[in-house]
Amino acid sequence: MKTTRLRAVLRDVEPAVARTVDVPTSTTLPELHQLLQTAFGWTDSHLHQFVTPQDTYGMEIPCEEVWPEDQRDETGARLADLGTEFEYLYDFGDGWTHDIEVLGPGGSTPGSVDGHGACPPEDCGGTGGYAELLDALADPAHPDHEHMRSWVGNRLRPFDRAATDQWVRRVVGEVPESVRLLIDLVADGVKLTPGGRLPRTVVRSMQQHRPHWYPLGRPASIEDDLPPLGALHDLLRDVGLLRLRHGVLAPTRAASDDLAIVRRLRSAFDANTFATEITGLTIGVLAAHGPLPLEELAAQVNQLLGRGWQIGGRPVSPRDVQTAITQQSSIMSVLDLIDNANWRVWTIGASARSLLPGATMLAEVWSNDE
Fold this sequence. Notes:
Distance between the termini: 38 Å
CATH class of the largest domain: Alpha Beta
Shape: globular
């Protein structure tokens, strides 16, 4: 994977805060936003913009005016559109400005190269408020010392290159093993059954790798014997990683590029939908608290749901959440977001941190606040 090396410096902050990271050269601006959030240690709680001498790029918010009026939608833009020097603005209230320079080609894989300085806590009042915060923390006689120390908690931590490197890699993402298996099994093209389902050879090959997908303990015969496999087959076709032509199923060109695979899988989780909210919170809770019975998992997810979610005109209940988690369990299982081999206890899956890193970053924030 080709990468580009960036050096980002947080403007007007003392002690200085800087990060050097290698990001995929084909990175889109929404992806770059997530990578910079991770590299610095922000929590993605506010709006942002990318600013060049010629253009400003940002998020389009339905029914909301943007500033400046000629702001361009960042969705279709890429890192290459920003030139060799640009600004990344985060939190228009606190006004954090990051000066970013493109240093040239990066290493063979994305990751954190270097850095120094602790990231300021969110909502501390910008550069001026942060300076006052540090003064109060440094002086035990300061009237706000105890209050500020309690408010900051353990959020003001030194830069950790190894941990940051791990988080940056997770944001870039990895292809879930289950997805890789199915793409490899149909790599040369397979003829589907008259009913449009996968042939027995593919079904049994997947069963060897995922025996808990068919708990009856005997060789599966048809795709419907492995419900998660059917969900995975449908999903990969829906996001354009598999294509049917003349009765033969084969991978598309995008399936040969790991970054494209991850992008397309993530596109299946529509932002601001109840299903995506439930999935993200489920992964976050499991990442923060470890394996949980379904009823306890649902209760914790329900507590974290933002206000406004309703079903049939009434607020969502823990039982509603439990039903929603169960409905989402198939997609979470086939993408290795959860491991439900033991149906009594739900456990985070192998791909959760690299496919939906935002959910596990939430878990990190919750842990820091405890």
